[in-house]
Design goal:
The protein is an alpha+beta fold. The chain has a domain at 178-456: Beta-lactamase (3-Layer(aba) Sandwich). The chain contains twelve helices and eleven strands. It has helices at residues 5-15, 41-76, 145-153, 205-219, 232-235, 252-261, 265-276, 279-293, 315-328, 330-333, 397-411, 432-456, and strands at 86-90, 109-113, 178-183, 189-193, 227-229, 249-251, 340-343, 346-349, 361-369, 373-382, 385-394. The protein has a five-stranded antiparallel beta sheet, sandwiched between helices. Strands 1-2 form a two-stranded antiparallel ribbon. Helix 6 packs across helix 7 (265-276). The termini are far apart.
């Protein structure tokens, strides 16, 4: 290295390049290094925003994939169904002409359902009724226990006073159908379609339950303020129900109102046990009374109408019962016209949408199971005329109601204004048990075999659901002022 001024200047220049890296080790004297400059602030913001956006998008994609996987599992794996989901077992009886009702189980398929029509049973009962059939004996306290326990944990919509959800049926849902319209004054049949073909009554069963209760009231054995005990068997009945608990009591007046409006299965069993001791014995009384009234093709095995192979009736028999209960108990049949009633803070509405919508409609009862379809017995009085009409096996509430409206308007003017028909007087059969067994076997044997023929003769009716009835406030029934007929008080 040369001496002199040049050397001094060069050394000075060299030492000016002795730099310290901001993140690295110090540079030795004489080494040249370049300092790393930080990126501008705008670029940093851009990079941070981009990274954040990528995180959000990734999270959304991951969530969507998880939801899709969960939905697929619920759709295809029975054990993966969401909480509150209940199955409806659908049986098309008319597709099994060679077998009995028990054979129809093999073709059952699941339908998703919700609300007060939720059921899971052999014949799948919904709107008015729901849950397991009590085959053969109605007095098995374990029937429907699994469903009732589930509802004890989470109360059904009916128990909370909510309106039921509608069942949605496929286009192939065509339960066996029958209809009849009878002039009560003359007893003449003004119209009929398969009136003697066996059908499941569903909650129309409760008309006979109330008939036997009205007999007790008339005889003075009970009164409307009587308190009826609630058993565990009654409390375990599936919806629709009041939500009664074992050990409670239910006033007769509330039992009648809840059966008429909500079609409460637990209340029906409370009545049955109070009168018959147990539900099975009460069902035998129901069948004997049916035969005494001339309902020779009807057999009851429970008090509610919950699904049961052997529980059968006909449109003609139900028309006869609709006429008999009004004629025999005008004081109490006024209950059937109630649009609603209040029970423990609940406003419970009648399932009969035609009350208040059809002129002169004064009752009486709806019914539904998956096997029976949508049933209705209706009574109409206009200008001294009185008709009782029955529709069994409607495809929907709206179709059933529209058909009933049509029948009423088409035929009521043909009804007589003069009373000429004899009173319907029940005569006990000589051998009720043997007659019961005979009728039961014949009805079961013919129910499936005649269903296909019944379907082919059915009048085609395609209608839209009519607007729901608007319930008016419920007033107290003046039972003391009611007229008397045939010895009724």
């Amino acid at each position: 290295m040369p001496d002199g001024p040049e050397a001094t200047d060069r050394t000075t220049i060299d030492t000016q390049f002795i730099l310290r890296s901001p993140s690295g080790p110090s540079l030795a004297p004489g080494e040249v290094g370049l300092q790393q400059q930080p990126p501008p602030p705008s670029r940093l913001r851009f990079l941070r925003m981009t990274a954040g956006l990528l995180v959000v998008v990734g999270g959304v994609i991951a969530w969507s994939v998880a939801q899709f996987a969960a939905g697929s599992a619920r759709a295809h794996v029975p054990d993966g169904r969401p909480a509150g989901h209940v199955d409806v077992i659908k049986v098309n009886l008319h597709r099994h002409p060679a077998g009995g009702l028990g054979d129809a189980k093999a073709s059952a398929h699941r339908l998703s359902a919700s609300g007060d029509h939720n059921v899971k049973s052999k014949f799948a009962h919904g709107t008015d009724n729901g849950s397991s059939a009590k085959k053969g004996s109605a007095n098995k306290s374990t029937a429907g226990k699994g469903h009732a326990n589930g509802h004890d944990k989470k109360k059904s919509a009916q128990t909370k006073g909510a309106h039921p959800h509608r069942l949605v049926h496929g286009p192939d849902y065509h339960p066996p159908y029958s209809e009849i319209l009878v002039d009560d004054n003359s007893g003449a049949v003004l119209h009929e379609v398969d009136p003697d073909a066996p059908r499941h009554p569903a909650s129309l069963t409760k008309i006979m339950t109330l008939y036997l209760l009205f007999e007790q009231l008339e005889a003075g054995k009970l009164n409307t303020d009587s308190l009826l005990p609630v058993s565990s068997h009654a409390a375990l009945q599936p919806p629709t129900r009041l939500g009664l608990k074992a050990g409670q009591t239910l006033k007769v007046d509330d039992a009648i109102k809840s059966i008429v409006t909500r079609s409460a299965n637990d209340a029906a069993v409370v009545v049955a046990e109070a009168i018959g001791g147990n539900e099975a014995d009460f069902a035998e009384q129901m069948t004997r009374k049916a035969h005494a009234l001339g309902m020779t093709n009807t057999v009851y095995v429970n008090a509610s109408g919950l699904p049961a192979d052997a529980q059968v009736t006909t449109a003609r028999d139900q028309a006869l019962l609709g006429r008999a209960i009004q004629s025999r108990f005008p004081r109490y049949s006024a209950y059937f016209a109630m649009p609603s009633f209040a029970y423990q803070g609940q406003d419970i509405h009648n399932h009969n949408n035609l009350l208040g919508q059809v002129e002169g409609m004064d009752g009486i009862k709806t019914g539904y199971t998956e096997a029976s379809g949508y049933n209705l017995v209706a009574s109409v009085r206009r200008n001294e005329r009185h008709i009782v009409a029955v529709v069994l096996g409607g495809c929907s509430t709206g179709a059933r109601d529209a058909r009933m409206r049509q029948l009423i308007e088409d035929y009521i003017l043909q009804a007589s204004i003069q009373r000429s028909a004899p009173a319907i007087v029940g005569v006990d059969p000589a051998s009720p048990k043997s007659a019961n067994a005979d009728t039961q076997q014949k009805a079961i044997d013919s129910l499936v075999g005649t269903a296909a023929a019944a379907e082919s003769t059915r009048s085609a009716v395609t209608v839209a659901d009519p607007p729901a009835a608007t319930a008016s406030p419920t007033g107290a029934l003046d039972l003391k002022a009611a007229p008397t007929v045939d010895g009724a008080p």
